[in-house]
Amino acid sequence: MAGYHIIGDPDTVLGYRFAGVSGDAVSSVEEARAAFTRATTAADHGILIITEAVEDMLKDEITAYRLKATPPYLAVVEDIWGKRGKRRSLQDLIFEAVGIRIVEEQ
Prior knowledge:
Rossmann fold, alpha/beta, single chain
Protein backbone atom coordinates (compact mmCIF):
# COMPACT_ATOMS: atom_id res chain seq x y z
CA MET A 1 0.00 0.00 0.00
CA ALA A 2 1.50 3.28 -1.07
CA GLY A 3 0.66 6.29 -3.11
CA TYR A 4 -2.10 8.74 -3.70
CA HIS A 5 -5.04 8.66 -6.09
CA ILE A 6 -7.57 11.41 -6.85
CA ILE A 7 -11.14 11.31 -8.15
CA GLY A 8 -12.57 14.60 -9.38
CA ASP A 9 -13.33 16.83 -12.33
CA PRO A 10 -10.89 16.72 -15.28
CA ASP A 11 -9.17 20.05 -14.47
CA THR A 12 -8.54 19.21 -10.81
CA VAL A 13 -7.29 15.73 -11.66
CA LEU A 14 -4.93 17.23 -14.26
CA GLY A 15 -3.49 19.60 -11.66
CA TYR A 16 -2.74 16.70 -9.32
CA ARG A 17 -1.26 14.64 -12.14
CA PHE A 18 1.42 17.34 -12.51
CA ALA A 19 2.40 16.40 -8.95
CA GLY A 20 2.62 12.72 -9.87
CA VAL A 21 -0.75 11.70 -8.42
CA SER A 22 -2.74 9.15 -10.41
CA GLY A 23 -6.41 9.91 -10.88
CA ASP A 24 -9.80 9.39 -12.43
CA ALA A 25 -11.58 12.31 -14.06
CA VAL A 26 -15.35 11.96 -13.63
CA SER A 27 -18.31 14.04 -14.67
CA SER A 28 -21.32 11.98 -13.57
CA VAL A 29 -22.52 10.05 -10.56
CA GLU A 30 -22.12 6.76 -12.44
CA GLU A 31 -18.50 7.55 -13.39
CA ALA A 32 -17.75 8.70 -9.84
CA ARG A 33 -19.26 5.54 -8.34
CA ALA A 34 -17.27 3.26 -10.68
CA ALA A 35 -14.01 5.15 -10.01
CA PHE A 36 -14.63 5.08 -6.25
CA THR A 37 -15.25 1.33 -6.31
CA ARG A 38 -12.06 0.70 -8.31
CA ALA A 39 -9.97 2.98 -6.10
CA THR A 40 -11.20 1.57 -2.79
CA THR A 41 -10.45 -1.99 -3.88
CA ALA A 42 -6.99 -1.23 -5.30
CA ALA A 43 -4.16 -2.41 -3.08
CA ASP A 44 -1.71 0.27 -4.22
CA HIS A 45 -3.51 3.38 -2.90
CA GLY A 46 -2.77 4.57 0.62
CA ILE A 47 -4.65 7.86 0.37
CA LEU A 48 -7.68 8.42 -1.82
CA ILE A 49 -8.30 12.09 -2.53
CA ILE A 50 -11.79 13.07 -3.61
CA THR A 51 -13.13 16.49 -4.47
CA GLU A 52 -16.02 18.05 -2.59
CA ALA A 53 -18.21 17.57 -5.68
CA VAL A 54 -17.50 13.82 -5.73
CA GLU A 55 -18.20 13.65 -2.01
CA ASP A 56 -21.57 15.30 -2.66
CA MET A 57 -22.34 12.81 -5.46
CA LEU A 58 -21.54 9.75 -3.32
CA LYS A 59 -22.56 10.76 0.21
CA ASP A 60 -23.94 7.35 1.24
CA GLU A 61 -21.06 5.32 -0.23
CA ILE A 62 -18.45 7.60 1.30
CA THR A 63 -20.07 7.58 4.73
CA ALA A 64 -20.24 3.76 4.68
CA TYR A 65 -16.62 3.52 3.52
CA ARG A 66 -15.37 5.88 6.24
CA LEU A 67 -16.97 3.72 8.91
CA LYS A 68 -14.74 0.82 7.81
CA ALA A 69 -11.61 2.84 8.65
CA THR A 70 -9.45 0.81 6.29
CA PRO A 71 -6.98 1.93 3.63
CA PRO A 72 -7.07 3.74 1.36
CA TYR A 73 -7.91 6.56 3.71
CA LEU A 74 -10.04 9.40 2.34
CA ALA A 75 -9.10 13.05 2.06
CA VAL A 76 -11.53 15.63 0.65
CA VAL A 77 -10.19 18.66 -1.25
CA GLU A 78 -11.71 21.61 -3.05
CA ASP A 79 -12.06 21.24 -6.78
CA ILE A 80 -11.00 23.82 -9.35
CA TRP A 81 -14.08 25.90 -8.48
CA GLY A 82 -13.06 26.35 -4.85
CA LYS A 83 -15.44 26.94 -1.95
CA ARG A 84 -17.05 30.05 -3.41
CA GLY A 85 -17.63 28.70 -6.90
CA LYS A 86 -14.97 30.96 -8.43
CA ARG A 87 -12.85 29.00 -10.88
CA ARG A 88 -9.19 28.76 -9.91
CA SER A 89 -6.51 28.70 -12.56
CA LEU A 90 -4.52 25.62 -13.50
CA GLN A 91 -1.46 27.59 -12.35
CA ASP A 92 -2.98 27.88 -8.85
CA LEU A 93 -3.81 24.17 -8.73
CA ILE A 94 -0.26 23.21 -9.73
CA PHE A 95 1.16 25.56 -7.10
CA GLU A 96 -1.14 24.05 -4.47
CA ALA A 97 -0.19 20.50 -5.44
CA VAL A 98 3.60 20.88 -5.78
CA GLY A 99 4.43 24.28 -4.30
CA ILE A 100 6.15 25.60 -7.42
CA ARG A 101 5.02 28.39 -9.73
CA ILE A 102 5.66 27.32 -13.31
CA VAL A 103 4.95 30.79 -14.72
CA GLU A 104 5.92 34.04 -13.10
CA GLU A 105 2.91 36.08 -11.99
CA GLN A 106 2.58 39.65 -13.19
